[in-house]
Amino acid sequence: MKKPDLKSLDLATLWRGLTRPDPAGTDRVVPPTGFTAQLTVFSAAAMAFLAVFALALALATGRLAERWSTELAQTVTVRIAAPENQLDEQTATVMEVLKTTPGIAEARLLPDSEVEQLLEPWFGPDVPVEALPVPRLIEVTEDRDGFDAEALRLRLQGEAPGAVLDDHTRWRQPLVSAATRLRVLGLFSLLLIAAASGAMITLAAKAALAANGQVIRVLRLIGARDITIATAFVRRFTRRAAMGSVAGMVLGMAAIWALPSVDQAGGFLTGLGFHGWGWLWPLLIPLCAAGIGFVATRWAALKMLREVR
Amino acid sequence: MQNLSFGYSGNDPLLADMSLTLQPGSFHFLTGPSGAGKTTFLRLCYADLLPTAGRMTAFGQDVRGLSRDGIAALRRRVGVVHQDTQFLDHLPVAENIALPLIVSGQQVDMAALGDLLAWVQLSGHARARPPELSGGERQRAALARAVIMSPDLILADEPTGNLDWDMSMRLLQLLIELNRSGKAVLIATHDLNLIRAAKQQVQARVLRIAGKRLQLAGADL
C-alpha cells in the first residue's frame, strides 16, 4: 500500500481549524477523556509554575552578572592600612597620586558612615568604627579610557607603602562567572521544561488517540477528513495546555510577588523576581505551552491517522 | 470495477477477476457462503481496501489515485450500513445519525433530522445512547445515518443478520423506498427469504460470490 498523504494536516490549515469557532460541534465527536484531560491540565500548570521560577532566575542572574560586570569594569578600591600616625599622611599622598593618574575620573574617600554601612552586615548596627583598626577606603572610578593598574600599583607602593590597589577582579570575577552560568542554567531549565511539557502532552495525546482508535475509525468510515479528526484532538489538547499553563503562571507570579523584597532581604542579591516590564515575560509561557500542545498533538495525530485508512 | 482481484496475503486472492457496474437506481443483492468475501467486496466499494489487481472506479475516479481527502469525499457519497453498526457510544442516537453532517461541517437541520428519526421509527430514542438500543433499532439507526447525506449509493452488510422477520421486512421496506427515490442499493446477505421478498417489489439483480468470482444468480431464487 502506498504511503498515505496527509497534506490537509499542514500547520496553516490546522491552525485555521483551531482558531475557527466550532458551531457544528465537531469537537463533541471525540469522547471526553477525564483522566488524560486532568493530567494534561495539571502537567501544564506544574510546568508553567516551574517555568516562571526558571525565567525569574534567568532574569535575576542576568541582572546580577550585568551589574557586577559593569561595576567590575568601572570601579576599583584603594585600601590604606598604615600605623595611625601615618594614616592621614598616606591618605593624602594616595589622593594626590590618584588625582594625577591619567584614566581616573574620580577618587572619593569613603566617610566613616559609609564604612560603617559596609561593616554592618558583619558587626551589626552602631559599629564603633573609630575604635577599630579599620583601613581607609578610597573608591576610584575610571574614565572611558581606563588607567594602567600595574603602573598605579607600583607608584602607590613607592609613595604610600600602606596602600593596596584592589581592582576587585579576584573576588568578583568568579561571582560574575557564576551568575552568568546560573543565567545559562535558567535558560536551559526553560528549554528542558518546554521539552518535558511537549513530551507529557504528546504522551497524553497519544493515549487519548489510542483510546479513541475505534472513534477515529468510525469517523473515517463516515467520510471525516483527517483535518476534522485531528482538529478535534488538537483543539482540545491545545486548550488544556493553555488553561493549565495560565493557572500555573498566575500561581508562579503570585509566589514570586510574595517573595521578600530586595531591601528586606538585605540587598545581597538583586532579588529573585521581575522588575518593571519584566513582569510581562511570564505572559509568554501560556502562549508557548499552547504552541507546544498544538505541535505535540498534531504530531501524535499524524502518527495515529497514518495507521487508519 | 473491472477485472478486480483482492487478497489479504500476496499469492492467494480472496476475490478474483470481478467486473461489475452499479448504475444509479439499481438494486443488487450480493450472496455467498460465510467467508466468501462479501464484506471484503463492500469494503472495496467504499475504498476501505484497495484492489491488488484490476481497476476500481467510483463516481468516475480511480480509487487508487484518490488522496485521503478524496477517499473521505467518496465516503460521503456512499452510505454504509455496517454489520456491526459502528456507532460512537458517547453520543446520543440523534447525534450519531447526524454525524456525517457534523464531520463535514454542515449545519444539522433539526426538523429534517426529526423526520429521518420518524422514518426509521426512532423518534422516541433520539436521546438514547446506542448501547441502549435493541439490534433492530441499531440497524435502523445505522440506515438513517447512511442516508442522511443523501448518498448516491447505499451499501448494507448483512443488515438483517440479527433481526427477526418483521423487523427485517421493515428495514427492507426502508431500503426499497430509498431505491425508488433513485439511490443505487447493494445488500450483502445470505438470507434468501429476504431476497425473495425484495424481488416481489423491485427489479433486483442477485450476485453471488463463488469460487472467488462474481456470478450472476437469480434463476434459482
From TrEMBL, chain A:
The chain crosses the membrane at residues 39-60, 184-209, 215-234, 241-259, 279-301. InterPro entries: ABC3_permease_C, FtsX. It is found in: Cell membrane. The keyword Metal-binding does not apply. Keywords: Cell cycle, Cell division, Cell membrane, Membrane, Transmembrane, Transmembrane helix. It is a multi-pass membrane protein. Residues 188-305 form the ABC3 transporter permease C-terminal domain. The keyword Aminoacyl-tRNA synthetase does not apply. GO terms for cellular component: cell division site; plasma membrane. Pfam families: FtsX. It comes from the Bacteria. GO terms for biological process: cell division. PANTHER family: CELL DIVISION PROTEIN FTSX (PTHR47755). This is Cell division protein FtsX. It comes from Paracoccus kondratievae. The lineage of its organism: Bacteria, Pseudomonadati, Pseudomonadota, Alphaproteobacteria, Rhodobacterales.
